[in-house]
Amino acid sequence: MSGGSYYVPATSKWPILGSLAMGVMMVGGGTWLVHGAAGSPIMLAGLVGILAVMVLWFRDVIKESMSGLYDAQMDRSFRWGMGWFIFSEVMFFGAFFGALFYVRTLALPWLDGEGAKGVSALLWPDFTASWPLENPPDSAISGPTETLSPWQLPLVNTLLLVSSSITLTVAHEALKMGERRATHNWLFGTVLLGTFFIIIQGVEYYEAYHHLGLTLEAGIYGSTFFMLTGFHGLHVIIGTIILASILMRIRKGHFSGDNHFGFEAAAWYWHFVDVVWLGLFIFVYVF
Predict the structure, then answer these.
(1) Where are the alpha helices (DSSP H) in 5-148?
(2) Which range marks the domain in which residue 90 is found?
(3) At what angle do helices 219-251 and 72-102 cross, to 10 degrees?
(4) What PANTHER family does this protein map onto (predicted)?
(5) Are residues 81 and 58 in the same domain?
(6) Low pLDDT (below 50) residues in the chain
(7) Mind listing the pLDDT tens digit for each residue in 164-178?
(8) Most C-beta atoms within 10 A of its C-beta, which of 156, 161, 190, 207?
């Protein structure tokens, strides 16, 4: 690469292999939904294939970056790509938040006889709208016996994630100033906070399932609760793995004060996950 030319990677097998692995996982998932355990091995094989492709593909990108093959235009391409990825995640969670708001502000009042479609109250005339919905209108569905208090484990998790954004920002600033030891220590603290969040979320789920009757089958409240918090928890797990990978790269001497987009991309993702949690804490737990 010279004279500001754009780096064109060598022919890569990873896109087609990644697509095939994803196809295998989808076939396995469909088989599992229709035929039960028969699809599990296929789905697992596809998942392992996707993870293997990701690791090997990222390895190649890291090698290219450390070899100095990328220029300013390539850096902009990575930034645009990460920006669009986070936008897709905004739309993903927006759909689930939209479902929650639709149920709370429109569907439940309609079933209680209010609004433009209040005639829906004819379906269950004795139903009274409330949220959290502990008594679903259909008696065949059992709601939760109790809901989670936002001022216990959810509040602790909120403090953990807010703190993790602070420690990650400090690590980022330390990296830009060339203070690698401080970068390592603050980033290690961020990974620990993310790990603690995951553990506490697991404890919360155990309490919900075994003591509160709050499950995926506990009516619309249970399904929206676990879809929103569950997918967010998955993102925290992924984010923690990403930050742990960045931590290992820091230990290997990767990144510099003016060349560290891999670190920045991980930070963007983590801050996004933190913002989503604040929305969850307010609209799922508190109100």
Answers:
(1) 14-35, 40-66, 72-102, 108-111
(2) 72-286
(3) 160
(4) CYTOCHROME C OXIDASE SUBUNIT 3, CYTOCHROME C OXIDASE SUBUNIT III
(5) no
(6) 1-2
(7) 999 999 999 999 999
(8) 190
